[in-house]
């Protein structure tokens, strides 16, 4: 498998073999999880609103199924849907009268779908909304298609906030990428240093669903998932003077970032964007559990204290915290001990954002 954190290492002195092997493992693992995220798909069932079907349409074939890439967007799958409708459903007269810029989608439950959200986020957000009305998903259940209603006219422009064109979606993606770049590093120098052809190449990588083409450029922006260095002990008057050597922590490491670009999505609720540093003040990695207990304490309450010791149980353990909710990241139920820095490096979306969907447990 290719390595996409391809920084040159031509130095006069070679690092120890163990260090080289460690770096290779880090790069391989980072690339592996990025590829797994990239290759993820979501099942969609797209049905034209029967009230808007043109006359002489084949009403038995107005439903279309597609297994779409998680990192893709609605405007990018519209051409494929249109080809199906033109070839199978609509007659020639109806086909000429339809305009793609008037198409829009909503879920079967009536939720308007945002053009600038990745398809994986739309699917996961729908999943957590359904968690309010159905039991928690079992690990053995198959993913069910998300049913979308395609409308062919009268788009609610005041609610879409974005035209359905591919160019508008590209601009929204680039803006999200720049914002994520600023949150990660405190500036957008990495993004603005890219040539125009490379910036365009990021979007073309998504449009053509090419992992190699996308990450050949995106690796210049995204952090690597190298492990954090241990915190240095506090200095004292008896300690030796501080060295002028640079710190051992890799400046491109996820644990060296200023903050992880994080957004939390609540079912049928608001989107919460918070400052999430990769390391806590005590030098330990910031985890999902810490993030949730800080910002969503009602859904993720702290673990109750241990009962007092007794003769029968001299060393009691605290009871487990109630499982009121769980996190979905790229369709995967993520444990509370998962580190935000690693998640941000390996499981963020193509736009750089770590989208965490919070589902309600209904057991």
Q: Summarize this, please?
A:
The protein is 33% helix and 13% strand. The protein is of the alpha+beta class and 363 residues long.
Provide an overview of this structure.
Its main location: membrane. InterPro entries: Atg5 (IPR007239), ATG5_HBR (IPR048940), Atg5_HR (IPR042526), ATG5_UblA (IPR048939), Atg5_UblA_dom_sf (IPR042527), ATG5_UblB (IPR048318). Conjugated with ATG12. GO terms for molecular function: Atg8-family ligase activity. One of its GO terms (biological process) is piecemeal microautophagy of the nucleus. With about 375 residues, the chain is α+β, with helices and mostly antiparallel strands. The chain has a domain of about 130 residues: Roll (Ubiquitin-like (UB roll)). Helices cover about 35% and strands about 15% of the residues. It contains 11 helices and 9 strands. Strands 6-5-9-7-8 form a 5-stranded mixed β-sheet, with helices on one face. A 4-stranded mixed β-sheet has the order 2-1-4-3. Helix 8 runs antiparallel to helix 9. The radius of gyration is 24 Å and the shape is globular.
Task: Please describe the topology of this protein.
Elements: H1 17-38, E1 41-48, E2 63-69, H2 74-89, H3 92-97, E3 104-107, H4 119-130, E4 146-151, H5 157-160, H6 166-185, H7 189-192, H8 196-207, H9 211-218, E5 262-265, E6 271-274, H10 288-295, E7 325-329, E8 332-334, H11 340-346, E9 354-360
Parallel strand pairs: 1-4, 5-9
Antiparallel strand pairs: 1-2, 3-4, 5-6, 7-8, 7-9
């Amino acid at each position: 498998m290719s390595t996409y954190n391809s920084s040159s290492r031509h130095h006069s002195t070679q690092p120890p073999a163990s260090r080289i092997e460690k770096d290779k493992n880090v790069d391989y693992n980072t690339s592996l999880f990025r590829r797994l995220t990239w290759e993820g798909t979501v099942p969609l069932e797209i049905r034209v609103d029967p009230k808007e079907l043109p006359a002489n349409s084949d009403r038995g074939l107005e439903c279309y199924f597609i297994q779409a890439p998680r990192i893709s967007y609605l405007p990018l799958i519209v051409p494929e849907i249109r080809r199906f409708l033109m070839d199978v459903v609509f007659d020639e007269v109806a086909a000429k009268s339809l305009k793609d810029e008037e198409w829009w989608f909503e879920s079967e439950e009536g939720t308007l779908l945002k053009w600038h959200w990745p398809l994986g986020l739309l699917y996961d957000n729908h999943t957590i909304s359904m968690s309010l009305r159905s039991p928690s998903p079992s690990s053995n259940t198959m993913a069910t298609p998300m049913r979308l209603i395609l409308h062919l006219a009268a788009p609610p422009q005041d609610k879409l906030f974005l035209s359905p064109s591919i160019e508008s979606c590209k601009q929204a993606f680039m803006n999200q990428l720049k914002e994520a770049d600023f949150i990660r590093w405190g500036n957008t120098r990495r993004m603005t240093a890219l040539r125009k052809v490379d910036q365009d190449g990021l979007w073309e990588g998504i449009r053509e669903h090419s992992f190699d083409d996308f990450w050949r450029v995106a690796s210049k922006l995204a952090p690597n998932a190298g492990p954090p260095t241990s915190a240095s002990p506090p200095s004292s008057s008896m300690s030796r003077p501080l060295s002028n050597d640079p710190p051992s922590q890799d400046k491109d490491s996820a644990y060296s970032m200023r903050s992880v670009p994080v957004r939390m999505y609540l079912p049928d609720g608001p989107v919460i964007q918070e400052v999430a540093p990769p390391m806590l003040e005590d030098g330990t990695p910031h985890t999902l559990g810490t993030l949730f207990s800080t910002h969503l304490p009602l859904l993720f309450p702290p673990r109750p204290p241990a009962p007092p010791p007794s003769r029968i149980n001299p060393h009691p353990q605290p009871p487990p915290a109630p499982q009121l909710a769980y996190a979905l990241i790229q369709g995967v139920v993520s444990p509370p001990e998962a580190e935000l820095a690693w998640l941000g490096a390996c499981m963020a979306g193509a736009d750089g954002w770590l989208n965490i969907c919070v589902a309600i447990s209904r057991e």
